[in-house]
Amino acid sequence: MGPDDAARFHDLMRQRGLWPDMCLAEWHRFLYWSSIDNPYRGALPIGDLLLDRNDALIGAMFYSYFPARIGRWRGIAPSTINVCLRPGSSGLLGIGLVRHYLRRTEFPYVLGCHSNAFAAAVFRKIGVTPCEHTAESFFGILSLQKEVTQRLLAGPRPLAILSRVGLDSALAFAARFAGHNEIPTSPMPENAVLLTEVGSFAREDVDALCREALVGVDVTVDRDWDYLNWRYAKCPRSDRFSFVALQGTQRSLEGLAVLQRNEDGRRIAICETLAPPHKASQLASASIGYARQLGGATVTVLPATPGWAPTWAALGLTKIRKPYPQFWVAHPPGTELPASFVAHYSFGEHKLHWGTPSTKSDHGDDDT
Fold first, then answer.
1. Residue 137 pLDDT > 60, yes or no?
2. CB neighbours of residue 138 within 10 Å
3. How much of the chain, in percent, has pLDDT values that exceed 70?
4. What is the structure's pLDDT at 258?
5. b/e for 91-124, b at 16 or more Cβ within 10 A?
6. Lowest-pLDDT range, 41-50, 135-144, 192-201, 359-368?
């Protein structure tokens, strides 16, 4: 698969009803950013096409790559492998594409993040063992009025509903039905600032913070200034991301979070939280505070950084019932993982290919 095949892949996705609002030009930008011009790809393949005897496209796969740290192993690993098949095609074709790719590239590990078990099942069928790890995720309402009003206006006969029960009654009913209240307003840390790019801080400060923040994590993306800059600042939808920073003395960096707004701005996802444990509460409070300032109605943490669950719960967020997303590490026989490993796969890596991860939860809509 090469750059000239992007249009054929785009047409196949539209046949499957995937990303119907993404035009070809936008698809080109995402494919170049995530795969073709990916700084970690090197000479690795962009993707694979499956053609019939008449050279018609049956299926396609494309890949993205990032730096990984798995136990003592460090290297480049493919992220979620995306497979798209022509309507009516057998799922065995997709399994064949994945098997072909892994045999050709001989990757020792593949990292994935999914909301269902399909990908894990595919890897089992081709003899690769997935080690699943379900992280804890959280959801909170920043403005109940904004959230319920949006849902009423988006639902059936909104004016009839509002005139019948009144807005105040609708809000009260929705709060009781959902079992949630607004997150209490917490004091904003004085050393917190909101920025538009990670380049505002020195490379060595960001690199040191990434190392300190993920001590004790066995399986993760090997974050540093270069990775964060590519993932968020260089993303085709970089205007949806904001950076929350905790500044120490002499403008040193003590914490960094990434917020992502959906298209209408009412849902905020906290994509990254990088801070040592003693700064977790400050960074979490600052992230929620700036989510309010950005006009969000809800905030979602998918998933929480290991060890941060009590921090989010203390701030009033509710643990999401559905374990979403699931993180897994696929490795072939003969390779090993730590016996009891701690994994961290942030919201920023989830659905990496199209740049703006979903803010879907069991409490909300998928509207990115």
1. yes
2. 24
3. 71
4. 93
5. eeebbebbbebbeeeebebbbbbbbeeebbebbe
6. 359-368
Domains of the chain (ranges; CATH) run: 3-134 (3.40.630.30), 138-321 (3.40.630.30)
Would the pLDDT of 331 be above 60? yes
Q: Taking the C-alpha atoms of 71, 313, 367 and 287 in order, what is their torsion angle to the nearest 10 degrees?
A: -80
β-bridge pairing 192-195 and 110-114: unpaired
Strands 57-62 and 82-85: antiparallel
Q: What is the pLDDT of residues 223-240, one digit of tens each?
A: 999 999 999 988 888 888
Would you state the structure tokens that stand for residue 26, as one six-digit string? 């936008």
What is the arithmetic mean of pLDDT over 97-105?
75
Give SS3 for 105: helix
Residue 99 token pair: 């098997």
Task: Give residue 66's pLDDT.
Answer: 86
Q: Which residue has the tokens 């690993």?
A: 77
Alpha-carbon gap, residue 87 to 356, rounded angstroms: 26
Query: How big is the chain by its Cα radius of gyration, in Å?
Result: 21
Read off the pTM. 0.82
Residue partners of 188: CB distance under 8 A and separation at least 6: 285, 286, 289
Burial of 60 (0-12, 13-18, 19+ CB in 10 A): buried
| CB neighbour list of residue 251: distance below 8 Å, 6 or more residues apart | none
Tally Cβ neighbours within 10 Å of residue 57.
18
Mean pLDDT of the chain: 76
User: In degrees to the nearest 10, what's the CA dihedral of 164, 165, 170, 173?
Assistant: -130
User: Which phi and psi (to 5°) does residue 203 adopt?
Assistant: -55, -45
